[in-house]
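Just curious. Invent one:
>
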Amino acid sequence: MNLASVNALNKDVTITMQADNAAMNSVNSTLSPTAQYSFFPDSTFSWTQKTAVVKAGQHATLVSVVFFPGKIDPTKNYMLPVSIKDAQGLISVAILALFIIM
């Protein structure tokens, strides 16, 4: 997670991530039916954490997702859209999404 700002914040910020089906639906709405993505089944990935803290004076922290390749069907197009659920009111969450695609 990277806070893209000129100045770092002067206090810790707790950020909570979430899988975002609405973001995937938005992408899929622009694609033909044969090119659309499916959400990764729950058994194919695991969050190591959904919450992370960007420390005061810093711009970044890590949020990790672990994938289980043996459980992923390689014949399908999967997407894991990730967005910020909460950032203590300090970040505009409406415009942020990350798409992990396989």
The mean pLDDT is 84.
